[in-house]
Design brief:
The chain is 22% helix and 47% strand. By secondary structure, it is an alpha+beta fold. The termini are far apart.
């Protein structure tokens, strides 16, 4: 009697989501996912915390409504954890870099800490 393997995290779906389709990206999050964002506006002692797919969806809708490109630079998956780098560029040339560490359950993101920095205008 064997045990069923948990579904694997799909890094190619992550790439397709980041580089073009926020709905594809949202499909990688568990319903109860938590996303912590740390940046110049939400510093480590008071990160912006989003709870659940609805709040994460609203953030993705905002980000992907902007005139900018997104590129998955690197992704490493090991067991129930993964990390990835994303680079973005606004139409006016301002660049954004983010690094994420994620926890996985059944191939879905349950926790994400995203640290981002961007060019000052």
């Amino acid at each position: 009697m064997g045990t069923a393997a948990s579904p694997a995290f799909d890094a190619e779906t992550l790439r397709r989501g980041i580089e073009g389709n926020p709905n594809t990206l949202l499909s990688l999050y568990a319903d109860d996912a938590e996303l912590r964002v740390v940046d110049h506006n939400a510093q480590p002692s008071h990160p912006r915390v989003l709870h659940g797919r609805d709040e994460i969806s609203a953030m993705l809708d905002d980000v992907y409504s902007r005139d900018m490109t997104h590129k998955l630079e690197d992704c490493v998956v090991q067991g129930d954890r993964a990390a990835f780098s994303e680079s973005c560029e606004y139409a006016d040339g301002i660049r954004v870099l983010s690094e994420s560490m994620i926890r996985l359950r059944d191939g879905k993101i349950t926790e994400q800490t995203l640290i981002q920095a961007w060019d000052e205008q």
